[in-house]
Amino acid sequence: MPTDGAAMFDPGDMNLLLPLLRAAFVAALFSAFGALLFIWLVAPQGLKLVGDRDADAIEGRCLRLARTSLVAALFALLGWLVLEASDMSDAANATDALAAIPAVLLETSFGHDLTAQALSMFAVLVLVAAWPQRWRFASVGLAGLALALQASHSHAFAMEHGPSLLLYAEGLHLLAGGAWLGGLLPLLILVRDAPPRPAAETLKRFSKLATLCVIAIAGTACFQGWVLGGGWAGLFGTAYGSVLLFKAALFAALLGLAAIN
């Protein structure tokens, strides 16, 4: 049990839980945005070749994935908010941490951005529940907004303290990652459940989107790495540079896997 004056969470636990919750939040947003974009932009041509009954079933499974991802993102956001509130207020217990949440939401840029993300996700959940044709673009746009706002929690925003080319590059980086990686699960659902011809048509369309996403990810990553890492010296001589190189290696592995398939 925490004692008076003691932090609600051990610093070591905080250092572990915060990145995990933040990563879970971003991964869930990737999945939600990618699934909705896939249904709206990539899948329609293939689904026309499947037949109405099977198309509705495949689309329904993709929508369930999007809804599940949004709910998971909201739970991760709530946990992230509690941990940040505890850290900002030096909370001694859970009650103090919860009491600090209104101030964090209303008085900090972190809280403002997190609120905007939460509202965007709630709006998407409402739209996805009905999923009318005329509102599909709005659903994708709001999910994309929630994902792009994640850039405001990044190193780019911390350095620039406001809108900048670096911040826009981070937003584009996130959207491209969500469109590519978040579209893989719905793509798997369609390819697994659809006949060969619709599956092949969908794969061709997704490949074009994925190619554009990879170009955007690589370009924005190089720009951000150069600016944030401090050029060659920062890239090879700092811990941050080492993290960037590790991420580049993972990205190369993803490209290799995509090329094989």
Give a short summary of the structure.
With 261 residues, the chain is an all-alpha fold. The chain is 84% helix and 0% strand. The chain is globular and about 60 Å long.
Tell me about this structure.
The protein has helices at 11-42, 44-48, 52-89, 94-107, 109-130, 136-148, 155-160, 165-181, 184-193, 196-229, 231-237, 239-260. The chain has 261 residues and is mainly α.
Tell me, briefly, the overall form.
Answer: globular
Class by SSE composition: mainly alpha
Per DSSP E runs of 2 or more residues, the count of β-strands stands at 0
Estimate percent helicity: over 70%
Distance between the termini: 52 Å
The number of helices is: 12
Q: Sketch the major β-sheet.
A: none
Estimate the strand proportion: under 5%
Q: Nearest-angstrom radius of gyration?
A: 20 Å
User: What are the segments in which pLDDT stays under 50 over at least 5 consecutive residues?
Assistant: 1-6
Name the average pLDDT. 86
What letter string, H or E per element, gives the SSE order?
A: HHHHHHHHHHHH
Which short descriptors sum up this protein?
261 residues, 12 helices, 84% helix, 0% strand, disordered N terminus
